[in-house]
Design a protein that fits this description.
Rossmann fold, DNA polymerase, domain 1, elongated
């Protein structure tokens, strides 16, 4: 019998691929601004700085990203981007709101087995924009596996504790599963809960941080390995 009463899954790049879509849009965006004589590396560096500056006000998610795309383009082109250029940027952003969030390898297999265990509650615990995250969950076809879906502005120890209260469990009963050491692992272990860390090939610059070993953190390469940890 597992000691965990709640297993919470991050969404983007844990249940489905997401960051590669952002990388693709950034490449197209950099190509667009290259028409104004701006080097792609400069575009990406300045875009990231714009995103970081906007986070306290706009938070995370596609809509915040789209506003940063427009702001950065207008500043870097000194207003030359114009209405048609902004329309092209908006179309790039819309692609991030409609892509197919196909479940990653092993996800449905793991969720199917875990959902058969009546002693465990399953949750989606993700940050971002509420409408977009719920839309992706619906489009992925995975919603029916979960007892609880919680979308937060940011993942903090307080947000993890609030998730536990909502599920009626203690932090000791929680196992968090995610691809970000910064957002999924560190806030979780700060509460006394445990985490499973599944790194991905594409990591957003903002999520990069120093990783370290911890007694309540298990690093795996494929989500199927989660079943061995839980059992």
């Amino acid at each position: 019998m597992t000691k965990y009463k709640l297993i919470a899954f991050d969404a983007d790049d844990t249940l489905w691929d997401c960051q590669s879509h952002f990388v693709n849009i950034e490449e197209k965006y950099a190509s667009l601004l290259s028409d104004y004589g701006i080097a792609p590396d400069e575009v990406k560096k300045n875009l990231f700085a714009t995103e970081c500056a906007n986070m306290p006000l706009l938070g995370f998610g596609v809509k915040a990203f789209m506003l940063s795309l427009i702001e950065n383009a207008n500043r870097m082109t000194e207003g030359r981007i114009g209405g048609k250029g902004i329309d092209r940027i908006m179309e790039l952003g819309r692609q991030l709101l409609t892509f197919d969030p196909n479940p990653l390898d092993g996800v449905e297999e793991v969720l199917t087995e875990l959902s058969d265990n009546s002693d465990i509650k399953l949750a989606v615990f993700t940050k971002g924009e509420l409408l977009d995250q719920n839309s992706k969950l619906d489009r992925s076809g995975l919603r029916h596996y979960f007892d609880l879906v919680e979308v937060v502005n940011d993942k903090t120890p307080d947000a993890v504790r609030a998730l536990c209260r909502l599920a009626g469990v203690k932090p000791d009963d929680l196992l968090m599963v995610g691809n970000s050491f910064k957002s999924d692992v560190e806030p979780t272990i700060a509460t006394g809960a445990s985490a499973v860390y599944i790194p991905t090939h594409h990591t957003w610059e903002y999520e990069k941080t120093e990783e370290y070993a911890h007694t309540r953190v298990t690093k795996i390469s494929n989500i199927r390995e989660l079943l061995q940890i839980v059992q």
